[in-house]
Amino acid sequence: MAEPVMTFSHVTKHYGPAGGGTRAVDDLDLEIADGEFVSIVGPSGCGKSTLLKLVMGLEPLTGGSIEYRAEATSIQAMTGMVFQQPLLLPWHTVLDNVLVPSALQGRARKRADTGHARTLLGMLGLTDFADRYPYQLSGGMQQRVGIARALLHDPRILLMDEPFGALDAMTRDQLTMDLLDLWERDRKTVLFITHSISEAVLLSDRVVVMTPRPGRIAEIVDIDVRRPRTLDMVNTPEFGRIAGHIRQLLDDTERVPA
């Protein structure tokens, strides 16, 4: 495995008073390599989204540590975040929404930022929509704008919290392939949260299967499916074997008491 860009060591997160609160994540160890695509699957409430909050520093750790390869001044500079909902500003155009991170950093709009934003929109099939407003876009197009916004400052790590969960099946498939194409271009490190086993297998190098609360790692599954990948691969015996194994792991963890 390549050099780790992110290392979780005995990561623990409890909510509420010590001894009587909720254990969201418990003693989790994980290394994510530079350029690796890692998905996390597990039942609702197992701490998947909590992990992303811990990575971003939005929640304090109860115990353990998360270490990053030092190549930026802050974790915010190293990471881009794509949320479950695109969270676009309705009074901004598509282009202005992509440029929001520059504004939040207090930077005056630069020609280079605008040019990069337009390039990202082109890569995501939104060239002709730069001057539209969010209400003029479909749900899938709005999520593409959210992805472009997360990529504006060229983060080394992309964090994605169930970004396609609210979309219809056809749009979800298309955005999955768009994401694969983007990842193949420069191999950013991606930490991807999903409830979809097939989505996780199609996208990932490894899939982390978590137990019900308190969230622990049940198994880390290597996805030995050749790249580049296509939607047709979901119908192959190899794909079915891996997806079936992950489904069985989830079924087994649901039956084992914490």
From TrEMBL:
The gene is cmpD_2. CDD domains: ABC_NrtD_SsuB_transporters (cd03293). SUPFAM superfamilies: P-loop containing nucleoside triphosphate hydrolases (SSF52540). Residues 6-237 form the ABC transporter domain. This is Bicarbonate transport ATP-binding protein CmpD. PANTHER family: ALIPHATIC SULFONATES IMPORT ATP-BINDING PROTEIN SSUB (PTHR42788:SF13), TAURINE IMPORT ATP-BINDING PROTEIN-RELATED (PTHR42788). The keyword Cell membrane does not apply. The keyword Ubl conjugation does not apply. Pfam families: ABC_tran (PF00005). GO terms for molecular function: ATP binding; ATP hydrolysis activity. It comes from the Bacteria. It is an enzyme of class 3 (hydrolase). Keywords: ATP-binding, Hydrolase, Nucleotide-binding, Transport. Its EC number is 3.6.3.-.
